Amino acid sequence: MKIKSLIGGGLTGTVNGLLGSGGGLVAVPVLRSAGLDTRQAHSSSLAVVLPITVVSAALYITGGKVSISDALPYIPGGAAGAVVGGLIMTRISPGILRKVFGGFAIWAGLRMLLQ
Amino acid sequence: MSGWIITTLAGFVAGIAGALGLGGGSVLLLYLTMFAGVAQRQAQGINLIFFIPCAAVAILMHSRSRLICWREVFPCAVAGLFGSLAGYTLSGLLDESLLRMIFAVFLLILGVHELLSRPAAH
User: Fold this and answer.
1) pLDDT, tens digit, 9 for 90 and up, residues B28-68
2) pLDDT of residue B25
3) Could you tell me which chain A residue has the CA closest to the CA of B90?
4) How many CB atoms within 10 Å of residue B101?
5) Predicted confidence (pLDDT) per residue in A57-80, tens digit
6) Chain A nearest C-alpha distance from B74 (Å)
7) More confident residue, B90 or B72
8) With an 8 Å Cβ cutoff, is B62 touching chain A?
9) Which of A61, A108, B54, B118 could bond to B24 as cystine, CB 3.0-4.6 Å?
10) Which one, of A70, A55, A90, lies nearest residue B81 by Cα?
C-alpha cells in the first residue's frame, strides 16, 4: 500500500516537473486507489501538490520566467474562490464531483493534444 | 479600472476549481493565454504562484472539515518532491511533445472513466 503511494506520488511530481502542470490530475486517482473516498482524494490532492508547486514556482521565478507581482491581481479573487470551494466540498455530491473532474480531465487532455 | 474586476473574477473561478481539486490549473491558464494575451511560460508561472495561497486556504478549510488524510498525503508529497526535481531535470532531455501526447491520452482515458462512473461503484 505504501509502495503505491510512493510511486504514485513520484509520478505526480514527475509529471509536474516535466510538463509544468497536471500533477493534481494524477494525484486524485492515486489517492483514491490508496483508499480515500472522492472528497478526501480531491481535498488531499491539494496537500500533495502544494509543496511540489512551491518548488516549481521558485524555479520559474529564479529562472526569470515570471515574477510574483504578475500573479498578484488574481490572488485576492483566488483566495475568496478557495473559501467558496472549501464550503462547496462539504456539500457537493461525490458523484457530481467525479463527473466534473472527468470533464476537466478530458478538457485538459484535449488542450494538451492540440497544443 | 475595470481590469481589476476581470482579474478578480478570473481568480475567483480558478480558486473555486482549484479548491475542489479539479486540477491542471486549466481555468486560469486558459484565461491568461486566451484572453489576457500572456505567453505560455509566463502564464504557467503565474498559475503556479497563484495556486500556493489558494491551496493553502483550501487545505485549511478541508482540514477543518476533516477531509485531508495526512497519513496518505505525506508519502505522496515527499515522493512528489523527488519526482518533480527528477522531472525538472529530465525536462530538457526527453521529447516533451511525445510526453504531452502520452499524458494527454492518459487524461482522456481517466476523464472518460470518471465521467462514466456509477454512484454505486465508489
Assistant:
1) 988 998 899 999 889 988 999 999 999 999 999 999 999 99
2) 64
3) A18
4) 15
5) 998 899 898 999 999 999 999 999
6) 7
7) B72
8) yes
9) A108
10) A55
